[in-house]
Amino acid sequence: MAPQRSQRQPRPALRWVLMLVGVIVVFGGVFAFKAFFAKQTNDFFDNMPQPAVAVTSYTVDTARWADSGEAVGTFVAVNGTDVTTEAGGVVRSIEFDAGQRVGQGAVLVRLNTANEEATLKALETSAKLAETQASRWQQLGKDKLVSLDDVQQRVAAAASARAQVEAQRALVAQKTIRAPFSGVLGIRKVNLGQFVNPGDAIVSLQQLDPIYLDFSLPEQQVGKLVVGTRVRASVDAQPGQSFEGEVTAIEPLVDADTRNFRAQATLRNPDGVLRPGSFAKVGFELGGEREVVVIPQTAVSFNPYGNAVFVIGKVKRKPGEKDMQGNALTGDKLVVTQRFVKTGATRGDLIVVTEGLKPGEQVVTSGLLKLRNDAEVTINNDVQPAADAAPAPANR
Q1: Integer Cα distance of 126 and 120 in angstroms
Q2: Among residues 213, 270, 371, 381, which one has the fewest Cβ atoms lying within 10 Å of its Cβ?
Q3: Helix axes 148-174, 114-142, angle to 10 degrees
Q4: Does the reported pTM lie above 0.85?
Q5: Is the confidence at residue 339, as pLDDT, over 90?
């Protein structure tokens, strides 16, 4: 009789354990390899030498500048108005041309005065009669033939008649519209035969020489700007030209909303090239010269949190430092450090640095967007940004 084989019971728990261990080993190896590869990659990029950034530089210098100020202003006519009529009527004649220069008192427009002149003649006749009667009654009064009260009434009637004549003459004169001052006329706003009411505009009249220039300054400059200060003005309509004048009035009130005060300068304008309402850039000197630290404006990174520059300095290379090709590097290298500065007035392409820089230091003037702290740079000053206090670009 053959021996019976013992049947082995299946062990599913062991199978699950072995399967779980296999999965852990496989995935652990994958993740370990991935972590090792990532670490090697990071180490490579962290230690990879960065190429030097080519920049231009400027050596911080000093200059003697007078305290100056700048503002924007508007030209205003010394006398400027829309000529109007005091009396209504129909336009009978227009005696000017648009854009014409006229003198004070020149006749511009005549209104129809037929009715007024007829009334004036009637009043003049009545006034003559009243004067004649007053003269006779005065003689009778001297002879004691009439009372003094009657004489005074006749004299008063004559005076009243003369006053009515003068009032009517004034009304007739009002219908002849004249230039109130010398100046240049604009475009007429009435036509022949048109009825105009009292106060209707006839034509604009502007006195152009001299001309006012109104501008505003912050309250910090109260007391620095005084009457007599020379100003320079430039306008877009006259490129390359500068017009000079002097401050003739300063508003004593500081605007509570803007914290600015207004000033007014007077400029000669014999050719009439400066026009009321035109925009102007205003420059002026506020005091004597002083020594300031200046750099090009292109060297400054203007930010809401503060203005900064990149200062160039020399540092020693680390032992074993290599370039992109793996060649060993020796000697010093140029690196930049970002430094916050306080800036002041500007003039042309230059700006004053009041705090943060010393004469002799080097700052980067171009390529700022490519830089970071401790970045290596090379200097190439073959082509540099403009750095002129009084630039004069050529017209193209």
Answers
A1: 10
A2: 270
A3: 160
A4: no
A5: yes
